[in-house]
Design goal:
Strand order of the largest sheet: 3-4-5
Mean pLDDT: 78
Number of helices: 4
CATH superfamily: Stage III sporulation protein AH-like
Distance between the termini: 55 Å
Number of domains: 1
Helix content: 55-70%
């Protein structure tokens, strides 16, 4: 009887996580559409990394971080709501609290990796940890093998993931 409450709570958390990821993807895909369109709806040429958002200009990296932060805030709110209003057993609450701690840990790791990579001289970077893999988008037209190795080293040290689970993408 108690197990159904646990599974229901975990199912709700999973749905909320999927919803947060969906919102993040929609926000990210909206920014790539804006990147590919010029003022007159024409495809813009080379390095058009700026997006006009309600009269302001935000680049891909700012837009990415805003979408990611929004999705994380929503997910954290859902987890906190479940913890605050849940009448579930202690095991279920422990699972939800563990999910919250894992999310906060990932947020911290992403911020740390972005800071460390920027400290190596890159103009900007966006990092996303998801399902045991790490995606790194670096503001650079091209990355040399030594640069990729440098970034890979930072990611592996901070996360413990294998090199096969790291995607490094130049953007610019």
């Amino acid at each position: 009887m108690k197990n159904w409450k646990k599974y229901l709570t975990l199912g709700v958390v999973a749905l909320l996580l999927v919803g947060a990821v969906y919102v993040n993807i929609k926000l990210s895909s909206g920014s790539t559409d804006a990147l590919s369109q010029g003022e007159n709806g024409e495809a813009s040429g080379g390095g058009g990394a700026d997006i006009d958002i309600m009269g302001g200009t935000r680049d891909y990296f700012e837009e990415f971080r805003a979408g990611r932060d929004s999705a994380y805030a929503l997910e954290l709110k859902y987890l906190e709501d479940i913890i605050a209003t849940s009448a579930s057993d202690a095991e279920t609450l422990a699972d939800v609290q563990e999910a919250k701690l894992a999310l906060v840990s990932n947020i911290d790791k992403e911020f740390t990796m972005e800071s460390l990579i920027k400290a190596k001289g890159y103009d900007d970077v966006a990092v996303m940890i998801k399902h045991g893999s790490v995606d790194v988008v670096v503001k650079a037209a091209v990355l040399e093998p030594t640069q990729v190795a440098q970034i890979l080293s930072i990611v592996m040290e901070e996360t413990g993931v294998s090199a096969l689970d790291v995607n490094i993408i130049p953007y610019g």
